[in-house]
Protein backbone atom coordinates (compact mmCIF):
# COMPACT_ATOMS: atom_id res chain seq x y z
CA UNK A 1 0.00 0.00 0.00
CA UNK A 2 1.36 3.41 -0.97
CA UNK A 3 2.01 6.06 1.66
CA UNK A 4 -0.89 8.35 2.22
CA UNK A 5 -1.09 11.38 -0.06
CA UNK A 6 -0.90 14.70 1.84
CA UNK A 7 -4.17 16.55 2.24
CA UNK A 8 -5.42 20.11 2.33
CA UNK A 9 -8.59 21.43 3.92
CA UNK A 10 -11.63 22.99 2.31
CA UNK A 11 -13.17 25.98 4.13
CA UNK A 12 -15.71 23.60 5.68
CA UNK A 13 -12.85 21.68 7.30
CA UNK A 14 -13.09 18.63 5.06
CA UNK A 15 -9.69 17.18 4.17
CA UNK A 16 -9.00 16.19 0.56
CA UNK A 17 -5.87 14.76 -1.06
CA UNK A 18 -3.71 17.32 -2.87
CA UNK A 19 -3.38 14.95 -5.82
CA UNK A 20 -6.47 13.60 -7.54
CA UNK A 21 -7.43 12.23 -10.92
CA UNK A 22 -8.94 14.12 -13.84
CA UNK A 23 -11.24 12.59 -16.45
CA UNK A 24 -11.28 15.16 -19.26
CA UNK A 25 -11.47 13.35 -22.64
CA UNK A 26 -12.53 10.10 -20.96
CA UNK A 27 -15.76 8.41 -21.98
CA UNK A 28 -15.46 9.54 -25.60
CA UNK A 29 -14.51 6.16 -27.12
CA UNK A 30 -16.07 2.90 -25.95
CA UNK A 31 -12.97 1.02 -27.13
CA UNK A 32 -10.91 2.77 -24.45
CA UNK A 33 -13.35 2.31 -21.61
CA UNK A 34 -11.66 -0.69 -20.00
CA UNK A 35 -8.31 1.10 -20.11
CA UNK A 36 -9.78 4.25 -18.56
CA UNK A 37 -11.55 2.33 -15.81
CA UNK A 38 -8.38 0.40 -15.00
CA UNK A 39 -6.37 3.63 -14.85
CA UNK A 40 -8.77 5.22 -12.37
CA UNK A 41 -8.80 2.08 -10.25
CA UNK A 42 -5.01 1.99 -10.15
CA UNK A 43 -5.02 5.61 -9.05
CA UNK A 44 -7.42 4.72 -6.26
CA UNK A 45 -5.09 1.92 -5.18
CA UNK A 46 -2.29 4.49 -4.98
CA UNK A 47 -4.33 6.85 -2.81
CA UNK A 48 -5.63 9.27 -5.43
CA UNK A 49 -9.20 9.06 -4.16
CA UNK A 50 -10.34 12.47 -5.41
CA UNK A 51 -11.85 12.05 -8.89
CA UNK A 52 -12.84 15.08 -10.93
CA UNK A 53 -15.36 14.79 -13.74
CA UNK A 54 -18.15 16.81 -15.39
CA UNK A 55 -21.38 16.34 -17.30
CA UNK A 56 -19.63 17.95 -20.28
CA UNK A 57 -16.84 15.37 -20.51
CA UNK A 58 -17.77 12.87 -23.17
CA UNK A 59 -21.35 14.19 -22.96
CA UNK A 60 -21.73 12.29 -19.70
CA UNK A 61 -19.53 9.41 -20.79
CA UNK A 62 -16.77 10.29 -18.35
CA UNK A 63 -19.20 10.09 -15.43
CA UNK A 64 -20.19 6.61 -16.61
CA UNK A 65 -16.53 5.58 -16.69
CA UNK A 66 -16.18 6.89 -13.13
CA UNK A 67 -19.25 4.90 -12.09
CA UNK A 68 -17.59 1.67 -13.20
CA UNK A 69 -14.24 2.61 -11.66
CA UNK A 70 -15.66 3.32 -8.19
CA UNK A 71 -18.00 0.34 -8.09
CA UNK A 72 -17.59 -1.33 -4.71
CA UNK A 73 -15.31 1.46 -3.44
CA UNK A 74 -17.69 4.39 -3.09
CA UNK A 75 -16.86 5.10 0.54
CA UNK A 76 -13.23 5.83 -0.38
CA UNK A 77 -14.05 8.40 -3.01
CA UNK A 78 -14.31 12.18 -2.99
CA UNK A 79 -16.29 12.90 -6.16
CA UNK A 80 -16.19 16.23 -7.98
CA UNK A 81 -18.50 17.00 -10.89
CA UNK A 82 -19.73 20.12 -12.66
CA UNK A 83 -22.84 21.70 -14.10
CA UNK A 84 -22.67 23.55 -17.41
CA UNK A 85 -23.51 27.27 -17.20
CA UNK A 86 -26.24 26.80 -19.81
CA UNK A 87 -28.05 24.55 -17.33
CA UNK A 88 -27.29 26.57 -14.20
CA UNK A 89 -30.76 28.00 -13.51
CA UNK A 90 -32.32 26.87 -10.23
CA UNK A 91 -34.35 24.05 -11.74
CA UNK A 92 -31.74 23.33 -14.41
CA UNK A 93 -28.98 22.86 -11.85
CA UNK A 94 -31.07 20.42 -9.88
CA UNK A 95 -31.97 18.43 -13.00
CA UNK A 96 -28.34 18.39 -14.14
CA UNK A 97 -27.16 17.19 -10.75
CA UNK A 98 -29.76 14.43 -10.66
CA UNK A 99 -28.65 13.30 -14.13
CA UNK A 100 -25.02 13.26 -13.01
CA UNK A 101 -25.95 11.26 -9.92
CA UNK A 102 -27.64 8.69 -12.12
CA UNK A 103 -24.66 8.40 -14.46
CA UNK A 104 -22.29 8.17 -11.51
CA UNK A 105 -24.44 5.54 -9.80
CA UNK A 106 -24.41 7.33 -6.47
CA UNK A 107 -26.71 9.26 -4.18
CA UNK A 108 -24.33 12.15 -3.54
CA UNK A 109 -21.55 14.23 -5.05
CA UNK A 110 -19.02 15.50 -2.54
CA UNK A 111 -18.21 18.69 -4.46
CA UNK A 112 -20.36 20.14 -7.25
CA UNK A 113 -19.00 23.02 -9.34
CA UNK A 114 -20.33 25.61 -11.76
CA UNK A 115 -18.12 24.82 -14.77
CA UNK A 116 -17.70 28.45 -15.77
CA UNK A 117 -19.68 31.64 -15.41
CA UNK A 118 -22.57 32.05 -17.80
CA UNK A 119 -25.62 34.26 -18.14
CA UNK A 120 -27.67 32.83 -15.29
CA UNK A 121 -27.49 35.12 -12.24
CA UNK A 122 -25.02 33.70 -9.73
CA UNK A 123 -27.55 34.07 -6.92
CA UNK A 124 -29.86 31.64 -8.73
CA UNK A 125 -27.17 29.00 -9.14
CA UNK A 126 -26.04 29.45 -5.53
CA UNK A 127 -29.62 28.97 -4.36
CA UNK A 128 -29.80 25.74 -6.38
CA UNK A 129 -26.56 24.51 -4.85
CA UNK A 130 -27.90 25.21 -1.38
CA UNK A 131 -31.12 23.35 -2.22
CA UNK A 132 -29.08 20.35 -3.37
CA UNK A 133 -27.08 20.50 -0.14
CA UNK A 134 -30.24 20.53 1.94
CA UNK A 135 -31.42 17.47 0.02
CA UNK A 136 -28.12 15.66 0.60
CA UNK A 137 -27.48 15.30 -3.13
CA UNK A 138 -24.29 17.33 -2.87
CA UNK A 139 -22.18 17.89 0.23
CA UNK A 140 -20.31 21.00 -0.91
CA UNK A 141 -20.18 23.31 -3.90
CA UNK A 142 -17.67 25.47 -5.70
CA UNK A 143 -16.85 27.13 -9.00
CA UNK A 144 -14.48 26.74 -11.92
CA UNK A 145 -12.78 29.27 -14.20
CA UNK A 146 -13.66 32.23 -11.96
CA UNK A 147 -11.31 35.21 -11.82
CA UNK A 148 -10.95 37.68 -8.94
CA UNK A 149 -13.86 39.87 -10.06
CA UNK A 150 -16.06 36.81 -10.56
CA UNK A 151 -15.29 35.65 -7.03
CA UNK A 152 -16.24 39.08 -5.69
CA UNK A 153 -19.52 38.92 -7.59
CA UNK A 154 -20.10 35.43 -6.22
CA UNK A 155 -19.67 36.65 -2.65
CA UNK A 156 -22.04 39.55 -3.32
CA UNK A 157 -24.59 37.05 -4.64
CA UNK A 158 -24.54 35.15 -1.36
CA UNK A 159 -21.96 32.59 -2.43
CA UNK A 160 -20.02 32.59 0.82
CA UNK A 161 -20.07 28.80 1.14
CA UNK A 162 -17.84 28.28 -1.89
CA UNK A 163 -15.28 25.53 -1.24
CA UNK A 164 -12.87 25.77 -4.17
CA UNK A 165 -12.16 27.43 -7.50
CA UNK A 166 -10.91 25.09 -10.23
CA UNK A 167 -8.69 26.87 -12.75
CA UNK A 168 -5.95 26.25 -15.29
CA UNK A 169 -2.57 26.34 -13.55
CA UNK A 170 0.78 25.03 -14.72
CA UNK A 171 4.26 26.29 -15.58
CA UNK A 172 3.00 27.77 -18.85
CA UNK A 173 -0.09 29.31 -17.27
CA UNK A 174 1.04 31.21 -14.17
CA UNK A 175 -1.24 34.24 -14.47
CA UNK A 176 -3.23 33.36 -11.36
CA UNK A 177 -0.10 33.92 -9.25
CA UNK A 178 -0.47 37.69 -9.63
CA UNK A 179 -3.80 38.03 -7.85
CA UNK A 180 -6.20 35.09 -7.87
CA UNK A 181 -3.94 32.56 -6.18
CA UNK A 182 -2.69 34.80 -3.33
CA UNK A 183 -6.21 36.13 -2.72
CA UNK A 184 -7.64 32.60 -2.63
CA UNK A 185 -4.96 31.34 -0.26
CA UNK A 186 -5.40 34.37 1.99
CA UNK A 187 -9.09 33.46 2.17
CA UNK A 188 -8.21 29.80 2.93
CA UNK A 189 -9.89 28.79 -0.32
CA UNK A 190 -7.98 25.99 -2.07
CA UNK A 191 -7.31 26.24 -5.77
CA UNK A 192 -7.88 23.10 -7.83
CA UNK A 193 -5.42 23.06 -10.75
CA UNK A 194 -6.56 21.43 -13.96
CA UNK A 195 -4.08 20.52 -16.72
CA UNK A 196 -1.23 20.84 -14.19
CA UNK A 197 1.30 19.36 -16.63
CA UNK A 198 0.11 21.27 -19.69
CA UNK A 199 -0.88 19.68 -22.97
CA UNK A 200 2.27 17.66 -23.70
CA UNK A 201 4.68 20.25 -25.12
CA UNK A 202 6.18 20.87 -21.67
CA UNK A 203 7.88 17.50 -21.85
CA UNK A 204 10.28 18.87 -24.48
CA UNK A 205 11.12 22.15 -22.78
CA UNK A 206 14.93 22.19 -22.18
CA UNK A 207 14.90 23.56 -18.62
CA UNK A 208 12.26 21.06 -17.59
CA UNK A 209 14.18 18.22 -19.20
CA UNK A 210 17.36 19.30 -17.40
CA UNK A 211 15.70 19.50 -13.98
CA UNK A 212 13.92 16.18 -14.53
CA UNK A 213 17.23 14.51 -15.40
CA UNK A 214 18.76 15.89 -12.22
CA UNK A 215 16.01 14.27 -10.19
CA UNK A 216 15.90 11.02 -12.13
CA UNK A 217 12.29 11.86 -12.99
CA UNK A 218 10.20 12.60 -16.06
CA UNK A 219 9.46 16.12 -17.24
CA UNK A 220 5.77 15.61 -16.44
CA UNK A 221 6.61 14.56 -12.87
CA UNK A 222 8.71 17.65 -12.31
CA UNK A 223 5.99 19.89 -13.77
CA UNK A 224 3.44 18.28 -11.47
CA UNK A 225 5.75 18.57 -8.46
CA UNK A 226 6.09 22.28 -9.24
CA UNK A 227 2.30 22.73 -8.98
CA UNK A 228 2.10 20.61 -5.83
CA UNK A 229 4.84 22.64 -4.10
CA UNK A 230 2.28 25.33 -3.35
CA UNK A 231 0.25 24.80 -0.15
CA UNK A 232 -3.49 24.97 -0.72
CA UNK A 233 -3.32 23.73 -4.32
CA UNK A 234 -4.97 20.49 -5.44
CA UNK A 235 -3.80 19.03 -8.75
CA UNK A 236 -6.01 16.82 -10.92
CA UNK A 237 -3.93 15.45 -13.81
CA UNK A 238 -5.60 13.07 -16.23
CA UNK A 239 -3.79 9.85 -17.16
CA UNK A 240 -4.90 6.66 -18.85
CA UNK A 241 -1.70 4.63 -18.85
CA UNK A 242 -0.53 2.72 -15.75
CA UNK A 243 3.01 4.13 -15.95
CA UNK A 244 1.67 7.68 -16.04
CA UNK A 245 -0.59 7.02 -13.05
CA UNK A 246 2.37 5.71 -11.06
CA UNK A 247 4.53 8.64 -12.15
CA UNK A 248 1.86 11.12 -11.06
CA UNK A 249 1.71 9.49 -7.63
CA UNK A 250 5.50 9.58 -7.29
CA UNK A 251 5.55 13.30 -8.10
CA UNK A 252 4.01 14.01 -4.68
CA UNK A 253 7.26 12.91 -3.05
CA UNK A 254 9.57 14.82 -5.41
CA UNK A 255 11.22 17.71 -3.57
CA UNK A 256 12.31 20.64 -5.73
CA UNK A 257 15.30 22.69 -4.62
CA UNK A 258 15.70 26.46 -4.51
CA UNK A 259 17.96 26.10 -7.55
CA UNK A 260 15.20 24.22 -9.39
CA UNK A 261 12.64 26.88 -8.58
CA UNK A 262 14.97 29.67 -9.70
CA UNK A 263 15.51 27.90 -13.02
CA UNK A 264 11.77 27.51 -13.44
CA UNK A 265 11.24 31.22 -12.81
CA UNK A 266 13.88 32.09 -15.42
CA UNK A 267 12.33 29.79 -18.04
CA UNK A 268 8.69 30.46 -17.12
CA UNK A 269 8.63 33.97 -15.61
CA UNK A 270 5.95 34.65 -12.99
CA UNK A 271 3.42 37.36 -13.91
CA UNK A 272 4.27 40.98 -13.17
CA UNK A 273 0.84 42.37 -13.98
CA UNK A 274 -2.77 41.30 -14.11
CA UNK A 275 -3.46 38.77 -16.87
CA UNK A 276 -6.76 37.48 -18.24
CA UNK A 277 -7.72 34.15 -16.74
CA UNK A 278 -6.64 31.37 -19.11
CA UNK A 279 -9.20 28.69 -19.92
CA UNK A 280 -9.01 25.53 -21.99
TrEMBL record:
CDD domains, per the entry: AKR_YeaE (cd19138)
Domain NADP-dependent oxidoreductase: 19-266
InterPro entries per the UniProt record, alphabetical: AKR, NAD(P)_OxRdtase_dom_sf, NADP_OxRdtase_dom
A Gene Ontology molecular function term of the record: oxidoreductase activity
One Pfam family per UniProt: Aldo_ket_red
Signal peptide, first to last residue: none
PANTHER family linked: ALDEHYDE REDUCTASE, OXIDOREDUCTASE, ALDO/KETO REDUCTASE FAMILY PROTEIN
Protein name, as recorded: Aldo/keto reductase
Taxonomic source organism: Pseudaminobacter soli
Amino acid sequence: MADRIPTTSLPSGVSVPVLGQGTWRMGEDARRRAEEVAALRLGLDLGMTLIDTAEMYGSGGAEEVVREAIDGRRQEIFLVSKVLPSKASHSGTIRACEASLKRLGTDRIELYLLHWRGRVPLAETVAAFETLKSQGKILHWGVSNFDVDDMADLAAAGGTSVETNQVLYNLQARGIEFDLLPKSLADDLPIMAYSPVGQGDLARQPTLVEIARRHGATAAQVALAWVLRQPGVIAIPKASRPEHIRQNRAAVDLQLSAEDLAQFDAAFPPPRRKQPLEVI
